[in-house]
Amino acid sequence: MHAGSAILQLLVAGIGTGSIYALIALGFNVVFKSTGAMNFAQGEWVVMGGMISALLFASTHNIGLACIAAVVIVSVIGILSERLVVWPLRRPNALLITLVSIGLAICSRSLVMMILGKKPVGYPGFSEASTLFVGGIAIQTQTLWIVGLTLVFLLAMHLFFEHTIMGKALRAAAADRDAAAIVGVRVETTVMLSFAIAAFGGALAGALITPLTLSSYDQGALFGFKGFSAAMLGGIGSLPGAIVGGLALGLLEAFGSFYISSDFKDAIAFAVLLAILFARPAGLLGRADVVKV
Amino acid sequence: MTMAPAKAAPPPVSTSPSQIVGAPSATSPASHPVRRRGVSDRMRLLLLWLLMLLVPYVAPNSYVISLGNLFLINVILIASLNLLMGYGGQISLGHAGFFGFGAYVSGILDVKLGIMPWIGLPTAAVLTGLSALIIGIPALRLRGHYLSMATLGWNAILLVMFNRLIDLTGGPNGLLGVHPFSIGSLALDTDIRQFPLVWLVSLLVMIAILHLLQSRVGRALRAVATNEIGADAVGIDSFRTKLLFFVLTAGMAGIAGSLYVHVNQYASPETFGVNGSILLVVMVALGGSGTYWGPVIGALIYTAVPQLLLDYEDAELMLFGLGMLIVLIAVPSGLAGLPATLIGRRFGRRPS
Amino acid sequence: MSEALLKVDSLNCQFSGLRAVADLSFSVQPGAIKAVIGPNGAGKSTLFNMIAGVTAPTSGAIHFAGVRIDTLPTFRRAELGIARTFQNLQIFREMTVLENVMVGCHLHGKVGVVKALLRGRALRDEESAFRDTAFALLDRFNLAAKADVVAGDLSFGQMKVLELARALASRPRLLLLDEPAAGLPQAEAEHISQIIADLNRDGMTVLLVEHNMRMVMSLSHDILVLNNGQWIAEGTADHVRRHPDVLSAYLGETEHA
Known about the structure:
The complex is a heterotrimer. Chain A is an all-alpha fold. Chain A is built from eleven helices and two strands; from the N terminus they run H-H-H-H-E-E-H-H-H-H-H-H-H. The radius of gyration of chain A is 19 Å and the shape is globular. Chain A starts with a helix and ends in a 14-residue tail after the last helix. In chain B, a hairpin with a 2-residue loop joins strand 1 and strand 2. Chain B is globular and about 55 Å long.
């Protein structure tokens, strides 16, 4: 293959995977903003999104409907999860919520395994034609769907946070819990909302990626780590950071596995990630964590 | 403004600073009702470990003794993580990685270079500590989740290495042909022969942790975790303190790894993944983060619960997750604090 | 006159254009109690933070006992002999009262990891020395009975005293007190005031920032008045009280503008 087109091909692949990571990282960031916790259940919602879509597709044969319904269902699961395990905490703090989210992840994974089975599942891409040839490179149409819908979702999130009362309330609660409570923001509701958004983003990622990679119950942890890494890379808690971090990680993996070694793909990605973090501690876009006396 | 008359000029300086603190006053320390917890924790530790010496005698079969060995190795792992996380406030998501690093160092030295396990064990401890030093120097300068991220990344990198450096590690099939510890010509190759060694090392690690906690450096660590600004003000170098304990606890994980690999005479990558690290953090929390006895409970859960749940097959994971959630929601301070919480509630005192 | 213990030379601090402290020079003599006063926003806290090592000066120099300290991190300044208390309390709430003070002894210990692990004579001697020092201080401040209480359970006034005891445990040569009486009822403020006076009689050099004028005027040998980050007046209580610029600063007059 021509060197130039190889690079283009890798670029497309990297942006596709990177968009998925961005969606997961966004979920991670939203929950981090509202609770200060690392949400280990994030990856399980990705798996649920894919597997429930597959189940619904098997009975309806309508991909669009199946995926939309799955994303909605998983969002409801996100809300329920928050009500069941985070809300009952008497003295919630970041570490406790993080730990609880690990328990939530384990239960979610087990439920998925028991109800939806252990076998990997999948369904065809959203478009009839699976591959397009543009300028000498092959692009999977599903990759276009991934990038497009990720953009739509991120744009919607941007509008939500900047222009709706609820979005502003969520940001206010994230900036200063007590102050937000004083001016009448119900902090608990914002935590629930953040779980709903995170589950929505995760499920969307799962529904989008399944046609390319299949989904199985045990992939959640890996998705979670990748999302967490992307979030850290971009600057934890930042919306544009999730996009930049996700794309950077996706591209790193694509180019690393092609030019160096696909066996060591993860190691390369993490090594570069650590190097970037040590050089730019606040992430590519984040602001430094200034500690005041 | 109300203004009182001013004082005269400063008095001449003649007294040395030590006079300000003063010599021990009339009330000598001995007359104060100091709870010397150290002594009693030490006694309890010795008693508990003496009691555990009975395990080989009462165990119905060799399998139970092997679980005893595993439990004691887990005690080392979880107690060291608790020292870092519970007392030092630093969450490492790479403890299983350090455990694996120690296991592979010691195992590879043995299998590839023929170096005896007795030398492999301290080497594993030192090299694991060194690897923590390299990760810790950049990561611990920053606050927040950086140590978590860096250790998670390091663990992920290690796992790839364990899997892919096949010539060295045996890859996914695991490292085979590891020799047991041996004393002269007596190979410690059965569960019952290994037990005394694992028992002794775990006891030494528990004693080491107790001694550290009751010393100047241990107090400095707790001070840094509780209030870094305050610690800074009394002259504690918080970065060095955190780094010191990060390296020390990684070294302890390395010791656990070396024990593990020579006891099982085998190591395979999946034992040492990020999931393992996360579960270790969970065990610290379930047992009681920042309590001396919590890790013993955590190690008991970590060792026994999977065995107890074996019969439930698919539901195993679910029961485990549910149990964990219930403990975290009902007793957030961990099971070691449960008696105190119950007593406190009964007498209407708030648990501290 | 003997050499100054603390010497501040043309110190400046700017926060995005705003001059919090402007070209300030002064010194603290050994054995003195020096107070820094001024209306809100005068730059007292910024000055204090620059001496303690929390805020970096934009320019200028700070010398302590002949050593330039303005670029050193806080813990290095503590090593040189500067101890401080905090306006908003930075005690170790989850540790006991005794442990809080023992942490204050940190700089005077030598037992490292190896000696601690072996738990030999060195560790036991050091622990008992720390304990003695801590109890001596707690006795002096009437906190000995609370030695085993978790510090977070103390009353606000007791916490302030505890923080002072912790600072003294490091046997400092200069004690920085950030509003030691803030938030305390009169009786407790007087208690603190008495402690400071006693310490000073034993030779302790003190630099304090305080709003309680009665306390400042009765305690201090030397008062520095700041307004808008600038030096206005310096001298004895009588001198400062009579100084016209001081009065106008407090009354908010801006004739000289």
